[in-house]
């Protein structure tokens, strides 16, 4: 059974302490050279113990810093995902407005557009960026999700032929891939 680094470290400390005790309580000291050798051994054991404790403290500090950075960058992932449908609905509302509706309820529609822009600004402030593919772009499975494939004349296989929904990234992680239709034309 493999021991963890922490268990190995604790075993090493116990062994060093046992050796230290045997050096300290060894009542047979024949010559001054033996006493000097025992003191050197004790010093080396204590120095080794100190260096191991120092290395472990540094590793713990680095782990804590990494955990803090990840929590800071990705702690709001769930909330961010929950806000994406709000953006989608607002975008659909703005996209569905006709010119007649815009003339009749211009202030209301302008308010929706301003709210949507503010939501995008908040997303940008917190490291959320939009993945906004265009028709004709090459399909990228890292950022896009193919919702369907269809043979469309004049396109190449793997080209985006329709964008159903924008995708979003939180720093370097995908929150939601862009939903697209892809051409399946051969050659």
From TrEMBL:
Its main location: cytoplasm. PROSITE patterns: GRPE. It holds the Pfam family GrpE. SUPFAM superfamilies: Coiled-coil domain of nucleotide exchange factor GrpE, Head domain of nucleotide exchange factor GrpE. Participates actively in the response to hyperosmotic and heat shock by preventing the aggregation of stress-denatured proteins, in association with DnaK and GrpE. It is the nucleotide exchange factor for DnaK and may function as a thermosensor. Unfolded proteins bind initially to DnaJ; upon interaction with the DnaJ-bound protein, DnaK hydrolyzes its bound ATP, resulting in the formation of a stable complex. GrpE releases ADP from DnaK; ATP binding to DnaK triggers the release of the substrate protein, thus completing the reaction cycle. Belongs to the GrpE family. This is Protein GrpE. The gene is grpE.
């Amino acid at each position: 059974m493999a021991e963890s680094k922490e268990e190995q470290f604790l075993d090493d400390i116990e062994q060093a302490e046992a050796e230290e005790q045997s050096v300290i309580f060894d009542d047979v000291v024949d010559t001054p050279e033996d006493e000097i050798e025992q003191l050197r051994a004790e010093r080396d054991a204590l120095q080794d113990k100190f260096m191991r404790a120092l290395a472990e403290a540094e590793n713990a500090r680095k782990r804590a810093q990494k955990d803090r950075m990840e929590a800071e960058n990705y702690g709001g992932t769930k909330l961010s995902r929950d806000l994406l449908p709000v953006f989608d609905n607002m975008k659909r509302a703005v996209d569905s407005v006709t010119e007649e509706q815009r003339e009749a309820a211009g202030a209301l529609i302008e308010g929706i557009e301003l709210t949507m822009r503010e939501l995008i600004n908040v997303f940008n402030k917190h490291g959320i960026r939009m993945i906004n593919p265009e028709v004709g772009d090459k399909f990228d499975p890292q950022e896009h999700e193919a919702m369907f494939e269809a043979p469309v004349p004049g396109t190449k296989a793997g080209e985006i032929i329709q964008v159903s929904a924008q995708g979003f990234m939180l720093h370097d992680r995908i929150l939601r891939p862009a939903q697209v239709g892809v051409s399946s034309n051969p050659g």
